[in-house]
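Friendly challenge for the regulars: who can give me the structure tokens for this chain first? No prize, just bragging rights.
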Amino acid sequence: MERFPMWDGQGRKTGLAEVLTRVPDNTWTWLLLDWDGVGEAPGGLDAEAFRDLVLAAPAGIPMTWPEVQAFAAAQQDVNDVLLVAVDAAADADPQRFARDDFAGCRYLVEGFDSGTWTVGRPDRPTAPFDVSNPVAPWVIFGPEGAPEFDEQIAALRAKGGRVYHFDARDMPDLAGVCDQFAEKLSFPGYFGRNWAALVDCLDDLHDHVTGGVGLVCVIHNADVLLDSDHVRDLVGTLCLAADRANTEFDLDGELRYRPVVVEHFVFLLDEVDAAAFAPLIEEPDDVVAAVDGVFATAALDLAAWRPETWARGLHGPV
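First reply, four minutes later:
Bragging rights claimed.
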């Protein structure tokens, strides 16, 4: 499952209908186990009566997928909501639900206290990243075909974001890296073709490249970078660029007065374990690397890079 903040970096709250775009079309039975918000209730009930009805149903209020979508579309705001999907209403287990045990359920959608969304299959561990939102880590190494990548990239596309594909075999050195990014992302002609210039251009992408939302750069065949001389510089540069793009404050803690742009970089591996990259991409006081299951992630060391925003709690979700 994945968790992400209800509020984005631009002061906008992500609604239930938008969250449901992350859920595949289905024929499951959905059970509404909790709800508190503002909007139209099914059956012509007022909001308070419907809330009481939900709380009085330990097995949940059953809904079809179209009914769930219609219910979401009728909500103006959601403070709390808990929806779980099962094969049939008979599969509901109120005793387990009361313990927040949703193992065996097909899917779960939860909004908690106007703060956090949780979406996904309860039996799958929460992914240590979210490429569809402006949250760290910015760079992820993982296996080709990982469902977490497919689901999160689909969520970004649903918001209007863009996805660009690269081949690591075309990036044998700095020149190759610059050529690929300049071509794929339509860098301006004055691009200086060095690491610093790459940061600047990635932080200043046009809306026709990002869709006005953001982008994910997917680098295939990333195994070849394991023995390269420039992988640490590459990852550090991408972390620095993404940190700027994804953050509404500058390094001094001042508002940048420009939209936050979702920006992540995914390195897909065929045979090499992602953990092998962690010691190669970590840089003390610069980049923090972590290994979580089959994934390795990288992000800036915010305490070192953004001491002002870090101290004031302005660094955003990480």
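The first helix runs from residue 16 to 19. The chain has twelve helices and twelve strands. Your move, everyone else.
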